[in-house]
Amino acid sequence: MKKILALAPVLALAACVEAQPPEQPAVMPPTCGAEQYQGLVGQSQSVLRDMMLPAGTRVIGPRDPVTMDFRQDRLNFEIGADGRIARVGCF
């Protein structure tokens, strides 16, 4: 019992230690190569048919369902309602 009472002040002080915020993961730059395709924004989606695109590339229509998982190595072309490339990105 005496040992427990002797540890009480130490435990009380330990409870006062300021908690450290968790480390934030480093933000990685996009790695899918989208920057080289930015010139296609505004062009018809038909230009993509003749191109050799990286494996796993998604061409996403205006009403297409897509998964919400983030992959910085996946190239995505978003097509607008007008049939033109609206956005190119890594996600």
Summarize this entry quickly.
This protein is of the alpha+beta class and 91 residues long. Helix content is 14%, strand content 15%.
Mean of pLDDT = 85
Helical region count? 1
Strand order of the largest sheet: 1-2-3
What kind of sheet is the major sheet? Answer: 3 strands, mixed
Query: Hey, roughly how much beta strand do the residues contain?
Result: 15-25%
Query: How does the overall form come out from the CA principal axes?
Result: rod-shaped
Question: Over the alpha carbons, how many angstroms does the gyration radius reach?
Answer: 26 Å
**Low-pLDDT residue intervals, each spanning 5 or more residues:** none
Structural class: alpha+beta
Task: Report the span from N to C terminus.
Answer: 60 Å
Q: Let me know the number of strands.
A: 3
Give helix % range.
Answer: 10-25%
Secondary-structure element sequence? Answer: HEEE
Describe how the helices and strands are arranged.
Blueprint: H1 2-14, E1 58-60, E2 75-79, E3 85-90
Description of the molecule:
- With 91 residues, this protein is of the alpha+beta class.
- Helices cover 14% and strands 15% of the residues.
- It has one helix and three strands.
- The protein has one helix spanning 2-14, and strands at 58-60, 75-79, 85-90.
- A three-stranded mixed sheet has the order 1-2-3, with no helix packed on it.
- β2 (75-79) and β3 (85-90) form a beta hairpin.
- It starts with a helix and ends with a strand.
- The model has no long low-confidence stretch (mean pLDDT 85).
